[in-house]
Amino acid sequence: MKVFEFPLAKITLAFLLGILIAFYFPLNPKWIFGLLVVFLLLLSVLFYQTKTNQSTKNYFSILSYFISLLIGMSSLIVQTDSFRENNYSNHNTVFEKEHSITLILREKLKNTKYNQRYIALVQKIDNKNYSGRILLNIPKNISNTFEIGTILNIKGHLQQNKKPDNPNQFDYGNYLNNKQIYAQLYAIPANIKVSTEVKKDIWFYVARLNSRISHNLEESHFDKTALAVASALILGQRQDIAPEIIQDYQYAGAVHILSVSGLHVGFIFLLIKFLLSPIPNTRKGSFIKLTTTLLSLFLFALIAGLSPSIIRSVVMFSFVAIGLHLRRNVNIYHTLLVSMLLILLFQAYFLFDVGFQLSYLAVFFIVWFQPILSKIWQPKNRILKYSWDIITVSFAAQIGTLPLSLYYFHQFPGLFFITNLAVIPLVSIIMFWGVVVMSFAAIGLTAFWLTKPLEWSIILLNKIINTIASFEQFIIKDIPFNFVLLTTSYLFILAIIIWLKKPNFNKLIFVLCAIIGLQSAYLFNQWKIQNQEEWIVFNQKKKTLIVQRQGNDVHLYSNDSASAKNKMLHSYFLGNFSQIKKQKTLSHLTYFKGNKILLLDSMGIFPKNIKPDIVLLTQSPKINLDRMLLSLKPKIVIADGSNYKSFLKQWEASCEKQKIPFHATAEKGFFQLN
What is the pTM of this model? Predict the structure, then answer.
């Protein structure tokens, strides 16, 4: 089936392109909306002309694609909170000092080591009306956990999202920005006032229902580890899963099981269909089935937290249900495209969600590639056929998501097909029985015979996952992968599948060109890396960490022998396709590309006639900086994360007097010289 020949496919691609243009190249909203109105008027004129003049059909199609592009741009603009005048991000004064902030708790996130975390909606700042979402951090030592809908008044300092402190580090600030969260608030318990009022909306009731289910199961002595996994599988709540459990699922290639998505919604859909099967397929009966199915799916989506993957899956299976009601063959490609259009029309930022991207790619490749794989072998035995179907579906999904997984996570679970073969049947049983158990738990029924089979099944699931994950030699880690390799890898995969569907000479040429493109991308990347040189001062608390890289080879300068295992260095090595060649202790004087670099440590001793280009201050040297600057006259002064914060302001003031640039890594992040 030629997917891209569908008009809907072209409209969807134009719509996606519009979202990407608006995201990466922000334009004036007035121009976008103005053009959209003009093009819609032109489209209406052409629509009537196509009835009498067939030659205008091409113009009508082209204009439709342009309108789709503009609608994509408009959707993102409308859904961007920062375009609203009363959004706190548009008022710099809210970040300058402490304010009295009134907010509503909207969503509970996974706790960190020291804090409870919530997404909160800003209502007022110093009694002035504002809007927007923030990330609220409340110390764990506070006596209670707040429920969703609680209104808090907190005196605190809003902190804007920062860029990464070190190169190739995960950009958490950008991640929050994409979720329309532009600031964080670290609350002090003494400055928190809890309102007697509670915002009772749909989020409040969903959170209360989830809490009630979890509480009732805990009271029935349900195993805590199993309950955390059950909550993830059925309720979409991953906050309480232990890090070692998540790691096991990652290593086994089954982490997708812990995120409610198409697999889980498919099981729910089949369960609903089975329960409704006694209803006759009359006109009235079919309507009752459709209504019940749609209500059940969207209720499940609400309970599971309305994540991008769950919304996508529920919308897609809703179209499947509608197709069955109308007794029509459901075109899965149309279903995918329509569900994507509808979701992104109302939630354009979902396009930048990793789960959303992986979910759609997995489903698309299962639909497109799995039928080719299934034809390789067609066993007649039912058990063999079932096993082969699981393997081919898993392989198709893994191939489709492999480049994107390498790009984001830099690892590949080699035993993914064994994992899916072993756990998919068990997960289907857990999902079916789990929905029953959770439903009864919601009304307080948690009998032993009801809950224990679910608990034992999840314990067995965890045991299987842990056993597979223990074969670490099959887990390929630390795979460097960038955007160029991501793009060329997908071109190669698409070329291979297109050729496999219907082999011919032209498609073989396309495959060969894709192979050459992939090789060229790899060689270009290597050439680019080999011709790079840089000297970097990392930002690390209480320690000094310096890297000098030439091509793939890194010289690490640190007095800490364990620095080579530092996580931030690990990210840097992956991002630059490099590795440590040698680790050396810090020296007081070094050179890089004609720059003389002087390092001053806690001793604060320096020769007066050295005349360095760069002075690096480490370990809080007790020196008269004004006198040092007059004596050495450096071009720039750097202070790394090993210095006391109280010293930084003094040093910055001294440098400002002498009109010498000052770079504190604690405030500005890493310093790079290349």
Answer: 0.85
